[in-house]
Design goal:
Elements: E1 4-7, H1 11-22, E2 31-34, H2 38-47, E3 51-52, H3 56-61, E4 65-68, H4 72-79, H5 84-87, E5 91-94, H6 101-106, E6 113-118, E7 128-134, H7 140-150, E8 154-158, H8 164-172, H9 174-191, H10 196-217, H11 221-228, H12 234-244, H13 247-266
Parallel strand pairs: 1-2, 1-4, 2-3, 4-5, 5-6, 7-8
Antiparallel strand pairs: 6-7
């Protein structure tokens, strides 16, 4: 069974580790980790029963697969805390936004196989949307392993690396758009007389239920919208208000602008 190292043991790493353990893809005894934070090391040692090391180098050397789970601005310096010998022949997964495969390869020995993953924060509740882009050196078996690992915390989709910025703009940043929408729907409910707690719960459940209908029915969102929209009814009145305020164009522009920013960040 694969031995796994987390280089960085923050909340995303914790969520992934919990998913791997719960779905029995990687047992806690096969998980190694290091983090500069005492508190994060304690979570992995005491709650997850993983092996916590005294350095990134030791964690990686003890594993077959390493997950780079640090912030993008710290990735280069962190990678250099691991000796080249420890990186040799490793499958290296990076969840750092904006860090390209070429950049990752420049930090590692030629024998390392790189896979770039863009998960999103619903990973923390087992509902991530993760996009996977592989380097030329990564094998089909490597890709299948990565898909199997990340399927424990949500849905996985393989894409060309050139599409990762668009993934970042859509699903990477998307939860924030949806949180904003839920907050606004809740505000509308409060304005219409609902208590705040009731309004927020109804708004969140409505978003979750609507998303599940799209995924499980396979119907186009427009078709599902039309199923709710009766002639001269309440829903078409609400949709007309959304169109009047440019809601559709705002969401499209949000994804486009976030994608552009992701491209800018990858060049820094």
């Amino acid at each position: 069974m694969v031995r796994l190292a987390f280089v960085g043991a923050g909340q995303m790493a914790e969520a992934l580790a919990k998913g791997f353990i719960a779905k029995k893809v990687v047992p806690s005894s096969h998980i190694n980790a290091f983090d500069i934070s005492d508190a994060r090391r304690r979570v992995f040692r005491e709650e997850l029963k993983a092996t916590v090391h005294d350095s990134n180098d030791s964690a990686v050397a003890s594993s077959d697969v390493a997950i780079l789970a640090v912030k993008p601005q710290y990735l280069s310096a962190t990678a250099q805390t691991v000796t080249p010998a420890s990186w040799e022949n490793k499958l290296v997964l990076s969840i750092a936004a904006g860090v390209t495969i070429d950049t990752l390869k420049s930090l590692l020995p030629a024998s390392a196989r790189v896979v770039r993953i863009m998960p999103n924060t619903p990973c923390l509740v087992g509902e991530s949307a993760s996009a996977i882009a592989t380097s030329e050196e990564a094998t089909s078996e490597d890709e299948e392993l990565v898909r199997r690992l990340f399927a424990t915390v949500g849905t996985t989709i393989s894409v060309d690396e050139g599409l990762i910025d668009a993934v970042t703009g859509l699903s990477g940043s998307g939860p924030a758009y949806i949180f904003l929408m839920i907050e606004a729907l809740s505000d509308g409910g409060v304005r219409s007389g609902l208590p705040r707690g009731v309004a927020t719960k109804l708004a969140a459940q409505t978003v979750m239920g609507a998303a599940k209908m799209v995924l499980e029915t396979g119907k186009h969102p427009g078709e599902l919208k039309d199923m709710v929209t009766s002639p001269a009814g309440t829903t078409i009145a609400g949709i007309a208000a959304l169109e009047e305020h440019g809601a559709r164009a705002a969401f499209i522009d949000a994804v486009t602008k976030a994608t552009q920013r992701s491209k800018e960040l990858s060049k820094l």
